[in-house]
Amino acid sequence: MIHQLVYYSRNTVSDSDRAMLTNMREILSVSQRNNSRDGITGFLIFDKTFFIQILEGERAQVTETYNRIARDSRHSTATIINVRDVPGRLFPNWTMGGAMRTPEVQEVYLRHGFGGALQPNRLKSDQVVSLALDLQAFEVSRRQEQKLAS
Ligand SMILES: Cc1cc2nc3c(=O)[nH]c(=O)nc-3n(C[C@H](O)[C@H](O)[C@H](O)COP(=O)(O)O)c2cc1C
């Protein structure tokens, strides 16, 4: 069994798109380094107001990682949506994938019924997982297109 934790938090970093993108890149880069060491995989959704993250791995590592993340001053009021054991990883190839909400990915949000701002306190973890899987698929096909074009 794999332990899965889904939480949301509020972004505390400046609201300029550039600052937020830099911040997101820094978070993903540190996450990828630490998570590959700790056997954690998952996905980070960032809609500019909120972060919503899925962490999956061994129970002790997931708990330790979440406790470390929750203390980070780049966000506040981390709130767990759901913790559960699942039969397998949903993001096996992603030590931490992530997508900031940009006009480019808006179509993915729309497909999931999120035209406006996310209200994470109303989200169920399955909705989060299904949005994250679609954002991941979008990112994979975008990278493939970039590769073909280069
Ligand atoms: C929204 C958010 C998500 C994060 N996700 C992860 C993560 O998945 N793994 C991780 O190691 N750090 C994550 N971090 C960063 C941690 O809070 C912390 O800065 C980092 O783990 C410290 O790593 P270091 O001790 O190697 O410098 C995240 C931070 C934020 C704000």
From TrEMBL:
- Where the record annotates domain BLUF, the positions are 2-97
- Protein name listed in UniProt: BLUF domain-containing protein
Q: Which organism is the protein's source?
A: Methylorubrum podarium
